[in-house]
Design brief:
CATH architecture of one domain: 3-Layer(aba) Sandwich
Helix content: 40-55%
Largest sheet: 6 strands, parallel
Low-confidence stretches: none
Number of strands: 8
Distance between the termini: 35 Å
Radius of gyration: 20 Å
CATH class of one domain: Alpha Beta
Structural class: alpha/beta
CATH topology of one domain: Rossmann fold
């Protein structure tokens, strides 16, 4: 099976392409610069569209930039798919295309109400894809992953690790949250299954690990895996939020967006994709996935 991937040099693209190649797929990059349509392989079996502009936690990016990359570029790639013999199109959207905050559990049936340019641009791409009629034999998947982690991925998990490594007490322990994550191993497994299981219908699918986990649990796991003593400080929430607002004002890393990512409740259901696959649980547990990621920080 031949698959073309946009954004293949990113974290997800690098891992996914390697995984597919190890499972006897022929993987080709689809660079989206210049006359990219000349690189489009109309004989591919599937297109996986990963390329996009990630959410900027510093909030310095212009809204138009998100729409140009996440929406307009997706329109062009999807149109190329529609006008080809390629059978499957997999678009990586985001749970943020639906909601920036989640009260209970996020299902695919939730009415989208994104608040940021990033989420709105992802939703715009989704709406365009869903507005087009598919030829018989074609399938389209809109994937909404939650926060992805794995060896080699830098971000909030790496930030937490560095805090613990330096012996700095974790100051946000008063926020007892539950949040869904997605290990790169489960992401690879799910995409592989979609490609080989032709009975899976087109549609929108959330991607997340089976169990939600709290940031406090992650901090404790970092300590256990790395052998470092952890200290969790229960500083009053109003003080934390006041410092975060100062971060917004002066442009420092500890800002409201960063605090939100570390402390918010954001539980995502993956039941729909598991039912489509006929599985009760994904191959990598939340604990095993985090342990693998944390161990990569020790190297």
């Amino acid at each position: 099976m031949k698959v073309q991937i946009t954004g293949i040099t990113g974290f997800v693209g690098t891992n996914l392409s390697k995984y597919l190649q190890n499972n006897n797929f022929m993987v080709k990059p689809l660079p989206l610069r210049g006359n990219w349509d000349k690189e489009f392989d109309k004989d591919s079996d599937a297109i996986i569209h990963l390329a996009g502009k990630a959410h900027d936690t510093s909030n310095t990016s212009e809204p138009a930039e998100y729409f140009k990359i996440n929406a307009e570029l997706t329109f062009k790639v999807f149109n190329a798919f529609l006008n080809s013999e390629v059978k499957d199109f997999i678009y990586f959207s985001s749970v943020k295309a639906v909601a920036d905050t989640v009260e209970n559990i996020l299902f695919e049936t939730a009415i989208p109400l994104p608040q940021t340019p990033y989420g709105k641009s992802k939703l715009s791409a989704e709406e365009y894809i869903l507005s087009k009629k598919l030829q018989v034999g074609k399938r389209v998947f809109i994937i909404r992953p939650c926060m992805i982690h794995g060896p080699g991925n830098k971000g909030n998990l790496n930030l937490l690790y560095n805090v613990v490594k330096k012996g700095i007490p974790y100051p946000l322990a008063s926020f007892d949250n539950r949040r869904s994550f997605l290990s790169i191993d489960n992401l690879n497994f799910l995409i592989h299954q979609i490609l080989i299981c032709k009975s899976i219908p087109s549609g929108i699918y959330n991607f997340s690990d089976d169990a939600a986990i709290s940031t406090n649990q992650i901090v404790r796991m970092i300590g256990e895996v790395s052998g470092i003593r952890t200290r969790l400080w229960h500083i009053p929430k109003f003080l934390i939020n006041a410092v975060a607002v100062m971060g917004d004002t002066f442009g420092i890393a500890f800002n409201s967006e960063r605090v939100k990512k570390l402390t918010e409740n954001y539980v995502v259901s993956n039941q729909k994709i598991k039912e489509a696959l006929g599985v009760e649980k994904l191959p990598t547990s939340s604990g095993d996935g985090f342990s693998k990621t944390i161990k990569s920080f020790l190297v």
